[in-house]
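ARCHIVE CARD
Drawer: 12
Card no.: 0347
Subject: one protein chain, sequence and derived structure
Cross-reference: see card 0346
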Amino acid sequence: MSAPNPLSATPAPPQRPAMPDNTTAIADFNSLPDNRPPFRDAPSVIIGHLSLPDHKQPEPDWVVFLAHYMRTHRETGNGYQSVADLQYLFLLISRVLLPNAIVENRQLLLEVFTVYPGLQGYNRLRYDAFDNSPRGKDDVDSIHVVVAPSGGDHRNLPFDYPVQEKVQQPLALDKRFHIPPRSIFASTTTPNGTDFVAWLIDSPLPLVNGAELGQMAHQKSQLDIYMTLPEVELRALNLLQLVRRTTRLLQMWFWLTGNNVRLQQHKSNQWTTFGEEM
């Protein structure tokens, strides 16, 4: 009896790349010190929003939040470290928080389409429908960025402004820092966004009553571009480009986590109210 030909075997379905949960990822990300190398500095107000987004309140003005990174670093006194910290924030969102929100979105949508397999048409709560949202229709390069002055009234800034002896100087928005790639975590490597998007594309469609759920097929969107942006390209962006793209990424993440909240509400109604999203 001849041995089975390994080349003729059905390939195993792709496995979702390993991804830390948000709580673990944020705790690890935020565990690096801000007063000694590697000088990780993330404002607590941003960490708070990423940990517990409040969709009962209006979306934050992310550019104002990111003003923290548009000045010389409060410990090192240079702009290099401030820009590096903003790059780390971009990677945390694009490689972990946004993918985890997508996984949750797909799990909830699978429940919807398992109950209503014949439900077809545009669904505004899908993770890949961002391009059709109001934010998604805006050009990222139209995002207005202003560096807050280093003096004057800072009471409206959503973070603690440094004391006078550590005044941070504003950075030029056209400044580029070619910062070497480095893991965003203290204990593990940064997840690979390209592998995650490949899993979204290549995963077989789930079956309901023997039929594929075509509604679960991945559609390309701006989210793919942000999750797969090579780290070397990210780290070569000038400050203006980086702030705009991090702002857009935060908008994507906030939009998607809000969609997941709405999906959970429809789930609590046994999906009977989901039709209003079509």
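Annotation on reverse: DSSP finds eight helices and two strands in the chain. Confidence is low (pLDDT under 50) at residues 150-156, 159-165.
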